[in-house]
Specification:
This protein is an alpha/beta fold and about 325 residues long. It is built from 14 helices and 11 strands. The chain is globular, with a radius of gyration of 20 Å.
């Protein structure tokens, strides 16, 4: 079944209401907020590489409040253990059995703050839950429910005592972006509200968690023309053959771009994907999946600049078939 124009209209209206609601807290960052909800409705996860104090926690909390969900925050440190994230089984002497005590990963929106400060063993505890939506402890599987999204953060200026995320885990994030500092007018509005602490700021719920699940299912029905799939395939192939790249975009990355493009199309009120959807999402969806050649990195080449060049060199489709 393909999404109808009427369903696309409802999707867009609801999406814009969600974005507007979060913008009461995250001022002047419409594009980042739209990306965040696009990641959520694409059933993916978001990686934020940003400086301290830019509103990452507020973003996660506002998204959870907007969808009437539960949010949690995990502060990653070198001594954090996998059980501190997933939960542990504790023996109950009265019942004579082990009871599972859920960890903070059991929430709708999970903020994994400074994820690269934890050891690789602890980081890997997120792999199963990010991909499968459940955790396995002592041989028993526990679902985390829906909707579910991990918003992980990294500090780009402090690398001492950190562990670089493995490529397999980076590939699990559907997008990577940054909030950045607010512009002048937004900063003034933030300063005017300095009397209210950040954790005291709340936004009303716009939709229920079940509606988010419904919207995510609806986004999957957006029509993708074969020429769009061909365009994405050519972009991915070009990333693998670029001379500055040691490892290009995976098949999972290509699928992520298709899923995110479907969601963005629906958010724009369309029941079909256009090349501009792909172009707009190429950098946040693909750039973090590239592993550059060491010499290219030394010369100042970045993944973003490579994706930008690929978009210039790879011609988009000029027409599409009727839906």
């Amino acid at each position: 079944m393909t999404m109808t124009p009427e369903q696309a209209g409802w999707f867009s209206t609801t999406f814009n209401r969600l974005v507007g609601n979060v913008e009461q807290v995250i001022l002047g960052k419409t594009f980042v907020v739209r990306l965040s909800f696009a990641a959520l409705l694409s059933e993916g996860h978001l990686l934020l590489e940003d400086f301290p104090g830019t509103g990452k926690t507020s973003l996660a909390r506002a998204i959870a409040q907007s969808v009437a969900g539960v949010s949690s925050r995990i502060q990653f440190t070198p001594d954090l253990l996998p059980g501190d994230i997933t939960g542990v089984s504790i023996y109950d002497q009265r019942s004579g059995r082990f009871d599972f005590h859920r960890g903070p990963i059991f929430a709708n929106i999970v903020l994994a703050d400074e994820i690269n400060r934890a050891s690789p063993k602890t980081q890997s505890a997120l792999l199963e839950v990010m991909e499968e939506g459940h955790v396995t402890v002592d041989g028993t599987t526990h679902g985390v429910g829906s909707p579910f999204m991990v918003i992980a953060t990294q500090n780009p200026i402090e690398q001492a005592g950190t562990y670089r995320l493995p490529e397999a885990q980076l590939d699990r994030f559907i997008m990577k972006t940054s909030i950045g500092y607010p512009d002048h007018l937004s900063t003034i509005r933030i300063l005017e509200g300095a009397g209210t602490k950040a954790h005291e700021t709340t936004v009303p719920a716009v939709v229920s968690a079940s509606t988010i699940v419904e919207m995510a299912a609806l986004a999957r029905t957006v029509h993708v023309d074969p020429s769009i799939n061909d365009y994405i395939s050519r972009l991915v192939d070009a990333s693998r053959s670029a001379v500055e790249v040691r490892l290009g975009v995976s098949v999972r990355g290509a699928l992520s771009l298709v899923r995110a493009s479907k969601t963005l199309a629906a958010a724009s009120g369309r029941h079909y994907v256009i090349p501009d959807d792909v172009k707009l999402l190429a950098e946040p969806v693909l750039a973090h999946r590239l592993i550059l050649d060491a010499e290219a990195e030394f010369d100042g080449v970045t993944a973003l600049s490579i994706i930008g060049q690929l978009l210039i060199e790879t011609p988009p489709p000029s027409d599409r078939q009727a839906v």
